[in-house]
């Protein structure tokens, strides 16, 4: 008669029970099969990023090069999108402005995701006074309108790209922390987390190895949806004179400086406005597609 040896589960076996994460290629294939609009949006975003990187190559002008003899020239073969009130090439300023908009979209979003995810996991897993303190702080941040809070922070800190990064990070972390906390509250009662806890695995290791990986799908969707929000906020701040300052280029700043010429030179404002609309829609469509692929329960019939 054969006897079977009972082998106690190791942490590696417990981790393998969670399931292997879907790789980028598999995710892209599912996205291409289920949502063509998301793939088109991804291509549009890639083209914007490529244009931002290759800005010095794509245009012979400098973004701050003024030529008053070419002031308010309409679109032509020499200036494809015309010139502004200072004789600067609008296309050149849009290409360089895309760098600012994409940086402002990505960097504060990454920082707010890191901060919000860390605080959300701590609040959800530890509970008690830690949860109460962090969530009340998040409630205070969420009680203020995002734009109003960003304006107050920019008034206090002053203009500049670094201050925009800080302001957008501070206004966006609270929503991330609440979503991650809700995921953590569900995951901490799961069987593999209970098994890891009974084996003496430290709370920090459980949070990093067993809980955080299962929050990544929600964070990916949230990341793609928060980027357009950050771009719109920066554009609004620059439009109000609280963000990027001349002679630097920013889409929101271009819309603001061109609004006084809407009847005589509408291309100054319409071109960056169209760019803002396209990039925001692209990120939103991509986020919707990723949400449907990563969380089938949210997929609409």
Describe the overall structure:
The protein has 301 residues and is an all-alpha fold. The protein has a single domain (30-62, 79-298), classed as MetI-like (MetI-like fold), CATH 1.10.3720.10. It has helices spanning 11-17, 24-34, 36-53, 55-58, 90-126, 128-143, 146-157, 161-187, 191-198, 203-239, 251-258, 267-294. Helix 1 (11-17) packs antiparallel against helix 9, helix 3 (36-53) crosses helix 12 and helix 10 (203-239) packs parallel to helix 11 (251-258). The radius of gyration is 24 Å and the shape is elongated.
Task: Write down the CATH class.
Answer: Mainly Alpha
Mean pLDDT: 84
User: In what range is the share of β-strand residues?
Assistant: under 5%
Overall number of structural domains: 1
Q: Which shape, going by the Cα principal axes?
A: elongated
Question: How many DSSP H or I helices?
Answer: 12
Count all strands and give the number.
0
Radius of gyration equals 24 Å
The CATH architecture term is Orthogonal Bundle
Helical amount among residues, as a percent range? over 70%
Reported by name, the CATH topology is MetI-like fold
């Amino acid at each position: 008669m054969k006897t079977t040896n009972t082998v106690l589960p190791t942490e590696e076996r417990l981790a393998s029970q969670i399931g292997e994460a879907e790789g980028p290629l598999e995710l892209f294939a599912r996205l291409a099969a289920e949502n063509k609009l998301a793939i088109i949006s991804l291509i549009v975003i890639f083209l914007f990023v490529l244009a931002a990187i290759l800005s010095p190559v794509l245009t012979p002008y400098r973004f701050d090069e003024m030529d008053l003899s070419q002031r308010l020239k309409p679109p032509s073969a020499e200036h494809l999108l015309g010139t502004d009130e200072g004789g600067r090439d609008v296309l050149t300023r849009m290409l360089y402005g895309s760098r600012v908009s994409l940086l402002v979209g990505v960097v504060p979003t990454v920082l707010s995701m890191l901060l919000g995810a860390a605080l959300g996991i701590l609040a959800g897993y530890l509970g008690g006074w830690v949860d109460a303190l962090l969530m009340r702080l998040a409630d205070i941040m969420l009680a203020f309108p995002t734009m109003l809070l960003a304006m107050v922070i920019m008034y206090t800190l002053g203009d500049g790209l670094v201050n925009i990064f800080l302001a957008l990070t501070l206004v966006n972390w609270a929503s991330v922390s609440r979503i991650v906390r809700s995921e953590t509250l569900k995951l901490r009662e799961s069987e593999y987390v209970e098994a890891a806890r009974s084996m003496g695995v430290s709370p920090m290791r459980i949070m990093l190895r067993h809980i955080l990986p299962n929050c990544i799908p929600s964070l990916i969707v949230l990341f793609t949806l928060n980027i357009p929000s950050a771009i719109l906020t920066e554009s609004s701040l620059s439009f109000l004179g609280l963000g990027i300052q001349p002679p630097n280029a920013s889409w929101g700043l271009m819309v603001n400086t061109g609004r006084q010429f809407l009847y005589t030179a509408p291309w100054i404002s319409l071109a960056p406005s169209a760019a803002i609309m396209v990039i925001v829609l692209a990120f939103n469509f991509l986020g919707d597609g990723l949400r449907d692929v990563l969380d089938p329960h949210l997929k609409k019939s």
